[in-house]
Amino acid sequence: MRAWRGRPSAWFSLGASLLVASGIGIGVLVSSAVTSPAQVLADSAPPRETLLTERVIVSKVTRSVTFDATVERSHSLPVPAPTPVEGSAPIVTRMPLRVGGKVTAGDLIAEVSGRPVLVLEGLLPAYRTLKPGLEGPDVRQLQRALSRAGLFSGAVDGVYGPATAGAVSDLYRLHGLEPVMAGLDEVKAAKEAVAAAEGARDVAPGERGLDPVEGGASSELRKARADLAAARSVAGASVPVGEVVFVSDLPAFVSAVDAGVGTPPGESLLTLSAGPLVLRGTPNSVDAIEIKRGAQAKILLSPQGDVKGKVSTSERKPTGASEQPGGGNTIFTVVPNTRLSDSSKGRAARVIVTVDTSAEAGLVVPDSALSVDAKGRSSVTVMRSGGTISTVAVIPGFTGDGLSRVDPVEAGALVEGDRIVVGVDR
Questions:
Q1: Do residues 140 and 81 make contact, with C-beta atoms less than 8 angstroms apart?
Q2: pLDDT (tens digit per residue) in 206-233
């Protein structure tokens, strides 16, 4: 290959140019990497402080109590075992439901010694065995409940007659069970009396030609037949106390199963929860003193959002219940103004209860805007137009939820809309 040969002067000029260019580049890099001492000090200085301000408003001030709560059903009903048959030891023979199970009218929820526990809708607790011939509000409730369950179409008159007995029989046989029958022995005896009276009339001497409803053996027969009609009117399917449980709101849900198959029943077989959803929670003991029945409440519930409500009831925690931090031992129930969805059951929520409100509206500032000097005098710092700052002496009034009602010592020194300093952003 033929090598390129040039003049020495050309090589020298090219090398000089490269040297100059590299020097310029190195200078640029060095100058960009080196910072002056003045710039270092400026960069290390703290940022300028910014005053945080809020506007003075005219409003009432409220004071509230906040506590955690859980969404629950409004009613809880422990279901006791029915009274056992005399001379037998009760034992649980069937428990078809589990926690969370749904219960509707006419459902069988337990069985003890072969006898059922059925559910119907009603407010009045069962307190006696219901059977034909009885009258009263509890009979009327039974008739109404059987009607709602689609088993009774007679008059709801509070009289336990044949139609009611027939509906009760249908309720039991719906579950393959035989109802307890009342008055059968009396009907049997009355039938035997009628048969005897009829025989006596047929053989009685001197009775021929008499009116069959008058005189001697005929009179006895009439009485026997009347007794039979009366016996039949009070005979039929009955409801032994404890075999039907009345629940105020259906459907209900099983919140606890307290007994197991093959074991003697305890105080309750299971516990039902029913009614609309409410919130229950326990504030600390100091705050609980301020909460009154009927107080307005705000419920923070996700994802449903904020809901308004009202404090309904309060009750002491049962002995031995776990204490929350702060020593709270009172459970408050808050009823929402709007019905909560069933999916909300069991969820945690935050409840804010209004416990007091200032008598009238006035100038209101955040508590963080108030300053107190060594002599106990209060003031706020006001940022005027143009950035000037002035201190205004005020007299604090009603306080609550981080706000204070104030009156300026000098009339007109503080008005609605003034910007007051509440902090410094560094």
A1: no
A2: 545 455 544 567 788 888 888 888 888 8
Residue 302 has what DSSP assignment? T
pLDDT at 273 over 90: yes
Q: Are 65 and 234 in contact (CB under 8 A)?
A: no
Report how far apart, in Å, the C-alpha atoms of 245 and of each of 49, 110, 121, 259 are. 71, 11, 8, 17
Q: What is the mean pLDDT of residues 320-324?
A: 53
Backbone angles phi, psi at 227, to 5 degrees: -65, -35
The rounded distance, in Å, linking the Cα atoms of 268 and 412 is 70
Whether the ω angle into residue 303 lies within 30 degrees of 0, i.e. cis, is yes
Q: What pairs with residue 223 in β-bridges? A: none
Count CB-CB contacts under 10 A for residue 60. 15
Question: Cis peptide before 251, with omega less than 30 degrees from 0?
Answer: yes
Q: How, if at all, do strands 403-408 and 371-372 pair?
A: unpaired
Assess contact for 117 and 245: CB atoms under 8 A.
yes
* Alpha carbon distance 185, 121 (integer Å): 32
Return d(Cα 376, Cα 372) in angstroms, integer: 6
Local confidence band at 322 (pLDDT 50, 70, 90 cut-offs): low
Residue type, 55: R
Residue at 342: amino acid letter = D
Residue pair 98/86 in contact (Cβ under 8 Å)? The answer is no
CA distance 228 to 188: 9
Which of 116, 168, 111 is CA-nearest to residue 142? 168
Residue % of the chain over a pLDDT of 90? 64
